[in-house]
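Input sequence (332 aa), recorded before submission:
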Amino acid sequence: MTSDRFRKFKFAAVAAAGALVLAACSGPQGDQPASSGTAGAAQPPSGGSLRVAVVTHGSAGDAFWNVVKNGAEAAGKQLGAQVDYKSDGDPGAQAKLIDNAVAQKVDGLVVSMANPDALQTSIENAVKAGIPVVTINSGEARSAQFGAIAHVGQSETIAGEGAGQRLKAAGKTKLLCVIHEAGNIGQNQRCDGAKTTFGNVQTLQVDINNPTDAQSRIKGAVQADPAVDAVLALNSQVAAGAVQAIKGAGSKAQVATFDLNSDVVAAIKSGDVLFAVDQQQYEQGYLPIVFLKLYKENANTVGGGRPVLTGPGFVDKTNVDTIAPYTEKGTR
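Predicted structure, token format:
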């Protein structure tokens, strides 16, 4: 897809998403959130009669997935939907969470698919049970095949291509792309995309659950090959370790990363991180709740079989001051 065609497609997708948000707020009227009632009475986190289960592969407390959760719960409160967010990084355990949601006969299901094969049966069973599914974040290529009504996220390949282009334009010549989660197809797609536009790319496998070892492996890799002058992290936590690894190795390599948090924002301001690829994960939580409400109340669908793109956007020194307050707020 040419860059002009991609920009037009992305603009159309974002415009459609914005229109749908407005429609959800002023269009078909569902149950509104319950009033506060008796003082001190327990209230569901997102009130309302539309029950949506959000099941992701993110770890509890992960900064990235907390923003997704914030988006989903904010949409639930605004649209009168009860949102139940659960996550598990183990594909088998994630599949069980989906099965449990189906057994509870929820009205809608939102699922991230880092490992589509492990989730296929569970998602297809949800569809067979008449539960509309929206996939988010990863697994874009399998979403329609499994019966989902929409996918919300960024194209990992296009995002990787954009990162590679920026690093090449910065004058870098050899890139180390750090994969931190084995079996996550999206991470391989990011590195493969970077290879397409950058050229000289090698990958390094680390374990995000062992940050000390991950940092040590990155340090060893740049020490072993002084020609490496750029490191692309695929996660904000890994980026922080990469910055320390490069400093410890005495290397002049520059770090870039996928995803934002307050540490990455600070590192961009200080010059330790060149840029961050921002997939605007708040939208990945928020928009599916809008889409499911419209589907249940007005039989609306979006995307026409193609994903609703939330990225890639890029945050660097030119716009970091604008974005920074939203990272502190938990919406970017």
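Checked by second reader. The chain has two domains: 3-34+44-155+280-312, 156-278.
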